[in-house]
Structures are given as structure tokens and as C-alpha cells.
Design goal:
disordered C terminus; transmembrane; disordered N terminus; single chain; Rossmann fold; 6-stranded mixed beta sheet; 4-stranded antiparallel beta sheet; 10% strand; binds adenosine-5'-triphosphate; Type_1_exporter
Length: 614
């Protein structure tokens, strides 16, 4: 199942949260009752229901076959006790039963194992596909480490439940249904004693189960926090070294590790109680059966063979009950994991395609930003009535100070955000009517904070299409003034850049990310402050190459540096989210407005450029 179909499964058949539930903060999410949370797996299990039904049938029949074993033994013992010597039939019966049971159990286990593996794969793919479609709000609400823990550790708990514990639960249900029927046939009185003990054990373990489930959720949440702490710390390792914060990071991690250990310990304690309860119940039952049954044999109320058969049935029941601690524990853990997993799967992506979204629209590169207003959920008004008309093939620079709304505008152009007012048209079509895939293929966005994958230059630059020729990769690298850097690397294009480009300078990372944007040859290229780490000479060289390379295609550059704006066909000057001025470099310089003011200040203090809109 690919990620798309897994995603479709989830949304077609999974329960949707109500709008009130979606608004709830993470920690206040309700704990779904045990079965409700596992029931949510139904759509994922559905494709394997036949295989699973075979597994269930085989496992249950293995226990039914096993139930004949004590009867054969009873017959054998009673024959011997009454002085008979021909036990061939009993012997053949015992061997036959053992062989049949082995075949059924092997078949059932194998089928069940396959279901658990496929289920886990679908859950992982589904969760990954779902996370891929989430937007900024979602990732602001869930720490990355916690998401990773849900997509790996929680799914593993579900897999382990279906792999092993589920078989034990089938054994419990099968044996507890079959064995009593045979037991009543041997001795109704002894059966009553055994069931009295079981009812008490069941009631006590149910009470314990509730606490274990809550603890399991806490343990999994603590694991998520620990994973996130490690991820956060390793991502910021340079900052940590620069500020000599290693010790405080270690003690922070150690605090998290301790909370995780304490939560685990609490859960282990409860699990210990459950195991002890099961063992004690087994002991009491055996004592009762041997004591009461023994005196019945002495009084000739029961044959020795029947008592032996009864004891064997008891042994079967106690055997599964003894393992039930593990099975119940795995069930509770899987149920807690389901609650956590569906908490993220129930979140609809913030921005999705319209039902009739256009998939194959041709993008030529004319952009109309029409009275665009955008307000962040925290009430911050980032853009107000912004209008821009951009013709295909233009090199546009949007200049403004820190926080003037430049990045917000680019995010709106690529539909990472939805406008609060106004609209954006691409070649006359409202971008909300274009599919996200087509839109983002047509508009390439090179981000302000370059993100590099932990792989080679070549794979980073040609990330969207690993089959591109080296020639194209070199051409994009040359245009981004990265060629020299790559040639100096020990393996050229194959040189690894390190985790998040750790082995590169800020400027080199920026240029690698720029080359990745240029190689796509998109009709519209959006560059968000991609030259901030370049000196003005390199910047001028890169810009003239970009102009040559992108002849006829639209390029929109966002910057706070006037040195970048000089190269533009047209400049839009943003001031606190509004378009303050529009025109060419010379025109705006002579106008004596905000642009001229920025120019004067940046010429006087070349770096850092611009002031602060705040
Ligand atoms: N996720 C967010 N939630 C709330 N406010 C935000 C968010 N992102 C940005 N803002 C605010 O919106 C305003 C515009 O931000 P934006 O990132 O668009 O500025 P910018 O012009 O690109 O700045 P810079 O030059 O520093 O990149 C700023 O005041 C910022 O604090």
C-alpha cells in the first residue's frame, strides 16, 4: 500500500474528531476507552481480514485439538487402573493430537505474524504520508521528537501486540471457553471452585489494567519528550558548543531520562502486581483442585483418570492465565499507543486541494497579488492590502526591513498559508483552484534558512530528481557560485555535506540550496533572502547568472539588502506589511522615500543591512 492509499484508508474509514476535539490542547486529549482506541485500527486491518480470520481459526482449533489430549490420557489411565494392557489406541490418539495441534498452531502463528508485519508497515506509511501533508500549525503543536516516537515506538507497540500478545489473547479466550465444558463433564463441583477463584482474579486485574493503561500513555509520552530533547540538542550542536552549554544540555537530558525511567518504573511495578496476581491465582486453584479432587477420588466420587484429566484442563487454563499478565500488558500498551497515534492521524492537513483542483494547468509566470491581507493566528497582521502585478519573465525584488512580511508573502504564494483577505492569481487563475502539487512544481521556493539533507552535494542539488545528468548539476552549481566549493571537496559532487550541511559554511549552504532551486527551471522562482551570506561582488555575479539562466521565466527575490534590489526589473518596497513604493532602482532612489532611506543607511553601514520594522 503506498502512502496515498494508506492516507485514503485512514480518512475514509477512521473516525474523525469533532471540531471541539480538534481544538483541544494536546495534553487534554481524551483517553479513548480501551476497545474504542483499538477499534480505530479496523480500516488498517481490513485488507488482511481473510488472512487474519485463517490465523484466528487455526489458533482456536489448535486449542480445541489440545482439549482432546486429557480425555485420551484419562482413558489410558483408567484402562491401566482397571488392569487393561492394550493402550495402542490411546497412544496413537495422543501422537495424532500432538501432530495436529503443532500443524494448526504453526499455520496460525505464521499467518498472524504476516498480518502484524503488514499492519505495522501500513500504519508507518500512512502516518508518514499524513505527516508529510501537515502544515506549519501542526508542526508548531507537536514537537518533532514526539512525532517520531509516535510514528516508530507507538506503532512498534501495536505491532508487538498483534505479533505475540494477540495469540495469547486468542489462547485465553479459546481455552477459557473450551476447557470449562470438558471440566464440567469431569467434575461440576471442582469447576465451581476454579471459577470462583477466576472471577476474583478477573475483577482485581481489571482494576489494575486501568492504571497500567494510563501509565503506558505516560511512558510513551515521556519517550517522545526524550526523543525530542535528543533531536533538539543534536540539531543545535553548534550553538551549544559556541555557548559552552554542554553541561547544562547533559543535565537537561538527564532530567528527561530520569522522568522516563521513573514512569517506566511505575509501570513495571503495576505490571509486577499483575504477574503476582496471576501466579497467586494459579497456585490457589491447583491447591483447591488437588485437595478437593483428591478426597473425591478417595471417596470413589471421581476416577483417577477424571481427576488427572481435570488437572490437565486446569493446567491449560492456568498456563494461559499465567501468560495473560503479559498479554493484557501488551494490549494496554497497544491501546495507549493507538490513542497517541490517532491523535495525530485525526488532524486534517491545514491546506488541502479543492475538490475540483486543476492538476495540469500550464504556468507561464504572470502573478497577480490582489488586495492580499494576512493575519497570523496570534493576531499579528503581517500583510495589509498588498497588490502586485508581475509579468512573465520579470526579475522582481521585494525589499523591506526585518519583519515587514516578505517571507509571509512567499509562503502565501506557495499556499503554505491561506490569505485572510484578497487572493493570488497565477496566469489569471486563483491559486486555490490549482492543485498543491502543480502549484509547488510551478513555483519553486528557496527558503531563507537553507535545509540540507545529510547526503552529497549532487543528491542535495538534484533532490527532486536523482536521475538528472551531472552536466545539469554542474550548471546549477556554477549559476549559484558553488562550483569552486564542490571542486575543492574530496569527492567532488559526491562529497557529503554532513548532517544538515554541518560541514559547510553558512554561505555554502545558502548556495547549495540556491542551486537546488535553480536546477528545477520552474516558471516562477521565489528566493527568500538567499544572498544574505554572500558578499556584494559574489551576489552581483550570481544575480547576473540567474538573469541569464532564467530568461523568460519569472523570478521573485525577497531581501532586505538594497544591493540585491539594484539588479531588479522592478522593486516593491514593503513597510509594515503594506506596499509603500514600487519602481526601478534609480526611480526609487530619486524619490527620496523609504527605499532611498534604506539605501542611504546601508551604504553608510553596509552590514548588517536595513533597520528593524519593529
Ligand atoms: N508563525 C508565525 N506566527 C505569528 N507571527 C508570525 C509568524 N511568522 C511570522 N510572524 C510575524 O509576522 C511578521 C512578518 O514576518 P515575516 O517572516 O514575513 O517577515 P520578513 O519580512 O520575512 O522578515 P525577515 O526579513 O526577518 O525574514 C513578523 O512580525 C513576524 O513576527
Amino acid at each position: 500500500m503506498n502512502d496515498l492509499s494508506a492516507f485514503a484508508w485512514m480518512h475514509r474509514l477512521g473516525r474523525r474528531l469533532t471540531s471541539d476535539e480538534k481544538k483541544m490542547p494536546r495534553n487534554a486529549m481524551p483517553t479513548l476507552p480501551l476497545w474504542n482506541s483499538l477499534e480505530r485500527l479496523g480500516p488498517f486491518l481490513s485488507p488482511y481480514r481473510r488472512r487474519w480470520a485463517w490465523a484466528l481459526a487455526a489458533l482456536a482449533s489448535a486449542h480445541l485439538i489440545e482439549a482432546n489430549f486429557p480425555l485420551l490420557l484419562k482413558d489410558w489411565i483408567n484402562r491401566l487402573a482397571s488392569g487393561g494392557s492394550d493402550v495402542t489406541v490411546s497412544l496413537i490418539g495422543v501422537i495424532g493430537v500432538a501432530a495436529l495441534r503443532y500443524a494448526a498452531i504453526s499455520f496460525g502463528r505464521r499467518r498472524n505474524a504476516l498480518v502484524s508485519v503488514d499492519l505495522a508497515r501500513d500504519l508507518r506509511t500512512g502516518a508518514f504520508g499524513h505527516l508529510q501533508r501537515q502544515g506549519a500549525e501542526f508542526f508548531a503543536a507537536f514537537p518533532l521528537g514526539d512525532l517520531m516516537a509516535r510514528a516508530t515506538n507507538d506503532i512498534e507497540s501495536i505491532r508487538l501486540f498483534f505479533r505475540g500478545a494477540f495469540q495469547q489473547l486468542v489462547a485465553i479466550v479459546a481455552v477459557m471457553t473450551i476447557a470449562p465444558i470438558f471440566m464440567v463433564a469431569q467434575s461440576p463441583l471442582l469447576t465451581c471452585f476454579v471459577f470462583a477463584v477466576m472471577v476474583v482474579t478477573g475483577a482485581l486485574s481489571w482494576a489494575l489494567a486501568k492504571s497500567i493503561r494510563k501509565k503506558a500513555q505516560i511512558v510513551q509520552a515521556e519517550f517522545g519528550a526524550l526523543t525530542d530533547e535528543a533531536r533538539r540538542s543534536f540539531s543545535g550542536i553548534r550553538t551549544i558548543h559556541a555557548h559552552a552549554l554542554e553541561e547544562s544540555e547533559i543535565s537537561r537530558f538527564s532530567r528527561n531520562a530520569t522522568s522516563y525511567a521513573v514512569a517506566n518504573d511505575d509501570m513495571a511495578r503495576l505490571r509486577g502486581f499483575l504477574d503476582t496476581l496471576m501466579s497467586a491465582s494459579a497456585g490457589v486453584t491447583t491447591l483447591l483442585v488437588v485437595g478437593v479432587g483428591g478426597s473425591q477420588v478417595q471417596n470413589a466420587e471421581l476416577t483417577l483418570g477424571a481427576l488427572t484429566a481435570f488437572l490437565l484442563y486446569c493446567g491449560m487454563m492456568l498456563g494461559v492465565l499465567k501468560n495473560s499478565g503479559n498479554a493484557i500488558f501488551a494490549l494496554l500498551k497497544a491501546s495507549a499507543a493507538c490513542t497517541r497515534l490517532f491523535e495525530i492521524l485525526d488532524r486534517q492537513p491545514e491546506i488541502i486541494d479543492a475538490e475540483d483542483a486543476m492538476q495540469n494547468v500550464e504556468i507561464r509566470g504572470s502573478v497577480l497579488v490582489d488586495n492580499l491581507t494576512f493575519c497570523y493566528p496570534n493576531g499579528r497582521l503581517a500583510l495589509v492590502d498588498v497588490t502586485m502585478r508581475i509579468q512573465p519573465g520579470e526579475l522582481i525584488v521585494i525589499v523591506g526591513r526585518v519583519g515587514d512580511g516578505k517571507t509571509t508573502l512567499l509562503r502565501l504564494l506557495t499556499r503554505q498559508l491561506e490569505p485572510s483577505g484578497g487572493a493570488i492569481f497565477l496566469d489569471g487563475i486563483d491559486i486555490r483552484r490549482v492543485s498543491l502539487k502543480r502549484l509547488r512544481n510551478g513555483l519553486t521556493f528557496v527558503r531563507q534558512d537553507p535545509f540540507l539533507f545529510s547526503t552529497s552535494f549532487a543528491e542535495n542539488i538534484s533532490y527532486d530528481d536523482p536521475d538528472r545528468s551531472e552536466e545539469l548539476i554542474w550548471a546549477a552549481s556554477r549559476a549559484a557560485a558553488l562550483e569552486e566549493t564542490i571542486r575543492r571537496g574530496p569527492k567532488g559532487l559526491a562529497t557529503p555535506v554532513g548532517e544538515k550541511g554541518l560541514s559547510l559554511s553558512g554561505g555554502q549552504k545558502q548556495r547549495t540550496s540556491l542551486a537546488r532551486g535553480l536546477i528545477r527551471e520552474a516558471p516562477v522562482l521565489l528566493l527568500d533572502d538567499c544572498f544574505s551570506a554572500l558578499d556584494t561582488q559574489t551576489e552581483a555575479r550570481v544575480l547576473s547568472r540567474i538573469r541569464m539562466l532564467r530568461k523568460g521565466a519569472t523570478t521573485i527575490i525577497v531581501t532586505h539588502r538594497v544591493s540585491t534590489a539594484r539588479h531588479a526589473d522592478r522593486i516593491f518596497v514593503l513597510d509594515r506589511g503594506r506596499v509603500a513604493e514600487t519602481g526601478g532602482h534609480d526611480e526609487l532612489r530619486c524619490k527620496g522615500g523609504l527605499y532611498a532611506d534604506l539605501l542611504r543607511r546601508q551604504e553608510a553601514y553596509p552590514s548588517p543591512a536595513g533597520g528593524d520594522a519593529e
